[in-house]
Design goal:
alpha+beta; 7-stranded mixed sheet; single chain; Rossmann fold; 20 helices; Helix Hairpins; 71% helix; P-loop_NTPase; 6-stranded antiparallel sheet
């Protein structure tokens, strides 16, 4: 597979990035955290939806709703394009193939696209990551790790680690089924117990069947006796019922006869009282004859009293009306004056409303004017101080904001440029210094080894003379001394540059205190305040004229209100009199009412005198000429006395009116009494004919109840035994079911034993001596052969390379066989890279077109890092290699450079194929 291009939209920190991948070595450069590794992760995501983030939504750029990744790649000469989109709740995947007419769809959906790509590449996501993707530190690990750790690393790449995990994970699985086996064995141990219980229950059931049969015979015999007793009892029950019914009717008849006798005696007494009342009625009728005239007399006297009171009220009202009319006439002129003044004040108040808020507005404007002046003074002071401060920073004497802004921009650009040049120079010198230190460190090791050995080369173990050894020692020492001199000069230069950078940085930091936006805003605010002050002064002049007119209106209102207070009492008297007259009748009406009332008094006087003359009572006749001396209490007493006579008379008449009814009731009671006496004699005769014997009845009842109790007791015993028998039958059935179920358990136990044997066999296959060993034995010669091919291409003086069973490397050179520890740093890098590429080619089935390296120089010292770069320069065996790094030295090995920068949280990709930065959109 060859990658042609990759597009990222809102993937992690990439808002919109497009990257072209030509053939050869592509270096993805950038600082840590710039978003380099996200590009490799996007490739894995596009192909297999594989990612390292905690969840899919976290791949979406912060603040965005959806991501999209488009990858174009070449397989077997055909071009494909995979597109994956993902929002927080939905996903979309499409795989297309290019032909003459463009791209056409061949698979959709996450699963469908992933399956089709696995088929095209002949590898799944796990194999792809192990084969094509070389992770951080893997090259260094193949050099520096212990043999056991290297073996584990290679095993992980080959997938052996998965087999080891499967071997370990099968332990709890086998343990689980072994526990099941023991559980089933425990179940089978209860078989004999259940069989014995079943036999015991069957024996108990047979015995209880015999006992229940005997109980049934006893129950049947008692049942027949009960039926005979029941027949005798029912006959006596019927006689008893008939006897009690007749006895009850006799008792009821006795009560009726008693009641009839009492009613008859009561009616005789009522008839005797009525005769006494008839003699009282005629006497009371004579006593109540004067009652009507006495009531009329009392009513006439009351009416006459009311007429005299009304007459007094009318005369009083006539006087009030005349007095109030006089008040109206004397105060009318003041009322009219008061009304006219009120109208004039109302008109003045309307005029005043036009200027009502003028004083408050004037006070507010004066306050605003003072505040605005203070604000202008403060702003002028701040602007002057800001100009002085900015001129001090810029070392100038300018009085225009535009001039200061222009000078600030120019100086800042120049300062940034100078700082960038200083940073670049510092970085170069520090890099050279670090390289010299590493060289000295590398030179010390062979120098010490030369001092220790006698006549052997410490590297290749070949014979060397003392002169040659001395020349080598001198050469190494001269190189170290020369490097130290350069290092001292570099350190002095770096210190000088650091001091210069610090001074420039301080000046740059002081530039940050210049904020032209704040200065411009203050100038704008001052101009606005000056304009506002002019407007306030113009408004104040206009309002002063309005205030003079307002004062004149207020003076006129004050004088008129003073006059209103002077005549207010006259006005109040006028309206009070007018209001009182409205509540009184006119004079004409009152005069008419007075004359009508006099006529009524005369008529009532004549009527009262006539009534006094007609009354045949001595006390009232004496007042027929002058009734003013008549005592009203005596009159009321006479009326009350005769009212009482009248009430008594009505009661007597009511009682007497019932006389005929009482006579009829008395006759009827006599007839009822005679008839019920005859019925009593008839019922008594019937009671004798029944011949009911209560003692015999009780004996039969007692025998019947005793038999019933025996019957119930036997039935209870039968039910109890049948219940126990039912439990026995149920227990027998349950035991039989349990025994039947053990047949299934026995069969299940046999199957489980066979299954555990299979699991143990499979686990043995997954173990170190099984498939793991087989996979190592099969892969080791293939990896060795491929590693030898790659190593040959690096042009080192070694004839062969081999791997033992633990993947420990041995090389064959001019001095014969040697281990990885005894070769130079550059040779170690070559071996490690050849081994890793060999593993990649074996995993990919020999089709190695692409390899991706993530920070391959990490954990390598400067010497070995440089060796790896030199090897990568010479490595032309692969069509395409993509390397992610922050090491600028790797640029030397690149055919194509892709730079990634992060600004304000967003990653930006810059292509640099021709060593010129060109933004990619």
């Amino acid at each position: 597979m060859i990658i042609k291009s990759l597009q990222l939209h809102n993937f992690k920190s990439h808002p919109k990035s497009k990257i072209e991948f030509p053939a050869g070595i592509s270096i993805i450069m950038g600082e840590n955290g710039a978003g380099k590794s996200s590009i490799l992760e996007a490739v894995s995501f596009a192909l297999f939806k594989s990612y390292s983030a905690r969840n899919l939504p976290s791949l979406i750029k912060t603040g965005e709703k959806k991501l999209r990744v488009v990858l174009k790649f070449l397989v077997n000469g055909k071009t494909y394009q995979v597109t994956r989109e993902r929002s927080k709740s939905t996903s979309r995947a499409v795989l297309e193939q290019e032909d003459r007419d463009g791209f056409h769809q061949i698979a959709t959906g996450d699963k469908g696209v992933s399956a089709e790509i696995e088929s095209l590449l002949e590898m799944d996501s796990s194999l792809f990551l192990n084969a094509v993707y070389i992770r951080q530190g893997e090259i260094a690990d193949l050099i520096d790790k212990k043999p056991s750790e290297k073996k584990q690393l290679i095993g992980k790449l080959l997938g052996i680690e998965s087999l080891e995990n499967a071997w370990k994970n099968m332990v709890p699985l086998i343990g689980h089924y072994s526990s099941e086996e023991q559980f089933l064995k425990g179940k089978m141990e209860s078989k004999e117990t259940w069989e014995k219980k079943l036999a015991d229950k069957m024996e108990e059931k047979n015995k209880r069947d015999v006992f229940i049969g005997e109980l049934n015979q006893e129950i049947e015999a008692i049942h027949q006796e009960i039926e005979q007793l029941k027949t005798d009892k029912e006959k006596l029950d019927e006689k008893k019922l008939e006897y009690r019914e007749i006895k009850s009717r006799l008792d009821s008849l006795e009560n009726i006869l008693k009641g009839l006798k009492e009613d008859k005696d009561s009616l005789k007494k009522d008839l005797s009282r009525i005769k006494e009342d008839e003699s009282k009625i005629s006497k009371l009728e004579t006593e109540i004859l004067p009652l009507n005239n006495l009531i009329l007399l009392q009513k006439g006297l009351n009416n006459l009293n009311i007429h005299h009171q009304t007459e007094k009220q009318i005369l009083s009202n006539l006087k009030k009306v005349n007095d109030l009319n006089q008040v109206l006439v004397s105060n009318k002129i003041f009322q009219e004056e008061y009304h006219n003044i009120e109208k004039k004040i109302e008109s003045l108040l309307k005029d005043k409303e036009k200027f009502e808020g003028t004083p408050a507005i004037i006070r507010s404007l004066i306050s605003d004017k003072d505040k605005t002046k203070q604000e202008i003074d403060q702003l002028n002071q701040q602007i002057s101080e800001t100009f002085s401060y900015y001129n001090q920073i810029l070392e100038s004497n300018l009085d225009s904001a535009e001039e200061i802004d222009s000078l600030h921009r120019k100086l800042e650009i120049a300062l940034n440029h100078k700082l960038n040049l200083l940073d670049q120079e510092l970085q170069d010198k520090k890099g050279t210094l670090l390289s010299l230190k590493n060289q000295n460190q590398q030179l010390k090791k062979p120098l010490e080894e030369l001092k220790e050995v006698e006549d052997k080369c410490p590297i290749c173990q070949s014979d060397i003379s003392k002169i040659k050894k001395t020349e080598l020692v001198t050469l190494y020492q001269q190189d170290i001394t020369s490097n130290k001199k350069q290092m001292v000069a570099l350190e002095e230069s770096i210190e000088k540059l650091d001091n210069e950078k610090e001074e420039l940085q301080k000046r740059k930091n002081s530039f940050q205190n210049i904020n032209m936006d704040i200065l411009q805003e203050k100038i704008k605010t001052r101009n606005t305040a000056s304009h506002k002050l002019s407007n306030l002064e113009m408004k104040l002049e206009d309002l002063k004229i309005q205030n003079i007119a307002l004062e004149e209106i207020e003076s006129s209102i004050k004088s008129k209100k003073s006059r209103l207070k002077e005549i207010e009492n006259h006005k109040e008297n006028y309206f009070k009199a007018k209001h009182s007259l409205e509540n009184l009748d006119p004079v004409e009406t009152l005069e008419k009412e007075k004359n009508s009332l006099v006529e009524k008094i005369i008529e009532e006087d004549s009527r009262i005198k006539g009534l006094l003359s007609s009354l045949e009572l001595d006390y009232f006749r004496q007042f027929k000429e002058d009734y003013s001396l008549l005592d009203s209490d005596i009159l009321q007493e006479e009326i009350d006395k005769r009212e009482e006579f009248k009430n008594n008379l009505n009661q007597l008449k009511g009682r007497v009116s019932q006389k005929n009814s009482i006579i009829e009731k008395l006759q009827k009671k006599k007839l009822d009494l005679e008839e019920n006496m005859k019925n009593k004699e008839s019922l008594h005769s019937s009671l004798i004919k029944i011949e009911y014997d209560d003692i015999a009845h009780k004996k039969i009842l007692q025998a019947y109840e005793q038999k019933k109790d025996s019957f119930i007791e036997l039935n209870s015993q039968k039910s109890k035994n049948e219940g126990i028998q039912g439990m026995n039958i149920s227990a027998i059935e349950d035991l039989q079911k349990d025994l039947d179920s053990l047949k299934d358990v026995e069969k299940e136990l046999d199957n489980l034993k066979d299954f555990i044997k299979v699991l143990n066999y499979i686990r043995k296959l997954f173990g170190k001596d099984g498939v793991q060993k087989d996979l190592r034995n099969r892969s080791r010669p293939l990896i060795q052969e491929e590693a030898r091919k790659f190593f040959d291409r690096f042009n080192f003086e070694y004839s062969d390379i081999s791997l033992d069973e633990d993947y420990e490397v041995e090389v064959y050179g001019p001095g014969g066989k040697t281990t990885l520890d005894m070769i130079s740093g550059g040779e170690k890098i070559a071996v490690a890279l050849a081994l890793r590429l060999a593993i990649t080619r074996v995993l990919s089935g020999g089709k190695l077109e692409l390899i991706m390296l993530d920070e391959p120089t990490i954990h390598l010292d400067s010497y070995r890092r440089q060796e790896l770069i030199d090897i990568l320069k010479r490595l032309s065996v692969l069509p395409q290699m993509i390397i992610v790094t922050h090491d600028s030295d790797l640029e030397e090995a690149a055919d194509n450079i892709i730079k990634v920068k992060k600004e304000e949280g967003e990653s930006r990709v810059i292509m640099d194929v021709a060593r010129e930065e060109v933004p990619v959109i």
